[in-house]
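Protein in question quoted in full.
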Amino acid sequence: MAQDKNNKYIKEKNKDKSEKKYRNPVMSKVGKIIIVTLALAMALSGVISLIIMACIGKL
């Protein structure tokens, strides 16, 4: 609600419904592929770092 200079509330008209609605990127195929790729990359980096640390003897 908006106010005019006399502090009276003015009803706003409904805005055009042509505005784009937010779409969750996870729902698309590309978003799912990106998320799975990142998850696999993080898991593999953790495993590789554990293997390297075990080979060096710091674990």
